[in-house]
Amino acid sequence: MVLWAGLVMIARWLQNLRLIDSPEGASLQSVAFSLRGGLSPWLALMLFLLGVALAIYFYRRESAKLTPAVRALLTGLRLLLIALVLLLLMRPVLLANYAGERPRGVIVLIDASQSMTIADRRVSATDWQRVADVRGLDEALQAERAGPVSRAQLVLDALDNDKLALLKRLRAKGPLSVLLFDRQVRPASDDWRKNYRPEGTQTALADSIHDVLTRQANEPPAAIVVISDGQDTASTRTLDEVARECSEKGVALHIWGVGSTEAGVLAFKEVRVPKTIFLDDKPDQKDDPIEVPVRFRCRGFKSGTVELTLKVGEDSITETFPVQEGENLSRTIQLVPRKGKDGERPVTVRLRLREQPDVGDRSEHVVAVKNARIKVLYVENTPRREYKFIQPALDRDRRLLLRLHLAQGDPRLAEQGTDPESGSMYVEKFPENFPEPDPKDPDRRPYDLVILGDVPLSVLGERGLRALTTWVKEGGGLVTIAGRYHLPGDYVNTPLAEVLPVEFRREEFDAASEARATPYRPVLTYDGENSPALTLDDKPEVSKELWTKELWVNVPGFYWYYPVLDVRPGATILLAHPEKKVGKRPDEKPLPLIASQFYGKGQVLYLGIEETWRWRDNTGDKYTARFWGQIALQLGLPHLLGNARRSQLELERGEPILGRPGAVKGRFLDSNYEPITRATVRAQLVHLDAKDDSTSRREVVLQRIVGQPGEYRAALPHDQPGRHELRILPGDGLEVATMPFRVELPPRHELLERGLAEDALRSLAVTAGGRFYREEDLITLPDQVEPRKQPFTLRSEVLLWGPLPFVLFVLLITAEWILRKFSNLS
Prior knowledge:
Layout: H1 2-16, E1 26-35, H2 41-60, H3 68-89, E2 92-103, E3 106-111, H4 125-135, H5 140-145, H6 151-160, H7 166-171, E4 176-181, E5 185-187, H8 205-215, E6 223-228, H9 239-249, E7 252-257, E8 265-271, E9 276-278, E10 290-299, E11 305-312, E12 315-322, E13 326-335, E14 343-353, E15 356-370, E16 374-380, H10 385-396, E17 400-406, H11 411-415, E18 425-426, E19 449-452, H12 457-473, E20 477-481, H13 495-499, E21 502-503, H14 511-515, E22 523-524, H15 526-529, H16 540-548, E23 566-567, E24 572-582, E25 589-599, E26 602-607, H17 622-641, E27 647-652, E28 662-668, E29 680-687, E30 697-704, E31 711-716, E32 722-728, E33 737-743, H18 758-767, E34 771-773, H19 781-784, E35 789-799, H20 803-822
Parallel strand pairs: 3-4, 3-6, 6-7, 7-34, 9-15, 16-17, 16-19, 17-18, 19-20, 20-26
Antiparallel strand pairs: 1-2, 2-35, 4-5, 8-10, 10-13, 11-12, 11-14, 14-15, 21-23, 22-24, 24-25, 25-26, 27-28, 28-31, 29-30, 29-32, 30-31, 32-33
């Protein structure tokens, strides 16, 4: 007990001398003494006793006359020196244990992701007043006049506002630490406010809060003040999980939600306006409506009514429907325009929120109006089964004017089931020439499309075959449907063989082998997915699903195909056999069932199948009629319009997405409609939404595709979101062409315009025992942070062989030396 009291007295004496660092607010709980040297206490004791004996012996033999007191004093000093040296050799340590409480820290966690760069669209006076409160303005109108303010700038304005004094007042609650977070948490530098540029491509709000709790596991903070818009795009944990974790550890979350809940986005992703509409010139004839499918996104609106308006010329129609949150919403709007002459009409499609008219999007187009219909000549040898379903489907399509020729069929069969008003009629023989159009005689108008079935070469004759080839080269459309008997086998080494997109030879088909044929399901290629002719639904994803699954629910598949040898250079495979290949290795390609190519001005489509009638099982002519109607429209319409373009551009690789490189494919003809042969074609890529004109334009070079005359391709970076336009500039004999497109942000991207996630942040704060704040509440935030103290213990070690023992050693040896001098000792 006495020893412990002595140690405590020594410890307090050392503490008073500031040789022991004692924490503020802590009291001394216990003291211990420890020896950490290599000299054992027993050996030290033996050495000390030896030193005692030697000191007494030598001082008793001193020749000088010393009084007993001086002799005893000198001996004692020598013994103290020996004891001190032995003690230092044993390395004594004094251990002092303190206990107390100290304030917990306060963590300020600030969002540094790209979403904080968004300038919210503020539409209400209340929302503008919040900006005014933070920026220290007297009136909301002043803030509104200043223009949109980014979320990041609003944070800086709040922290620099002397009236709020957020950081200063929070520092009074406990030690303050400022951290920045996006995907990860990092300490903020001393001058972080000067360099605060949110650039994080992902936000992990929940994971960042968990990270702070993990770092402070032994001494959790009193509170975490979160400054964020609440967008979480990368966390592996949920906000509810970290809220419960904060509650269990007694860490309150105080959250300032930055942004506007009233902000949102309502924008088009795709608007599919037909290039041409057909209006019957007969006053009493009712026209079909124009159908415009649109895809759009809607985010950030809790309620309201969306207005979708279609305007064609002077006619318009508006549909309304409730707000629905979604990234890929779709709608189709229809309008029957008034009759009129051939020409062009402006088309405007507008999307807006009724409650906030300035929120929305618009898309402008031009549509060609035609009173005349596409004139189609369908030629077959006999009325085979495919013919029996194609003929009525084409005849019922009011965009088409059908003419029929059956080489070996009764002419009356060609007229069966036709609508007298459609103008369908039987043609006596295949034309030996295609006359120039005569406005006074519609029947003299050349055909826009020829569909050639399984017809013998003799039906066309040499003159008819030559006329057909020339007509296609001048811009006519041609569809060939292979058969078991004549086409394409009869046309080997004829002019038509050069027109078709496939290389072939005559094949003989055995009835017995066909009876044993197993069904197969065709595969839609990438080019087929993007071909308007093969689109079976307005939604691309639904159309793809139809080709892969729905068409074959009640149909086992196709059984027959024509085994061609290869695909011609420049041809495109749209539908392929799932297993068979053509060509030579290593350039093998899937066997084409549907392939297309351009021949001069015209386009040619080859079908190596004759079983599309099978789709009618349990679906009627729903898909058959659309399939053949679209084929007729795509191949016949250019000839009807008479403006076959020499420069054509189209996107490859699906919808343009930011960060995913894409490609553009072009087809270019010279003034004689011959494919150009130069190595490159230069184009200009314009970013229509660019804020800086100096970076809005860049050059794109299209490279020639080997083996495909007139075909060119170039990569597109897709590194800037928004509206773009690729332009082929005039010069070098090229026709001017433009291709508009929009680069979309990928799902969950930081720059997607989302409003403040108020509900999620409010729930997070309440569950964690804190509060949620808007700008008008910031003045109260520091006052709501409750100071808390954390119990702690501290063990302080004092090495007694430090400066104090050294000073004591010098004093002892000096005292002995002085005393010996005064005693006349050497």
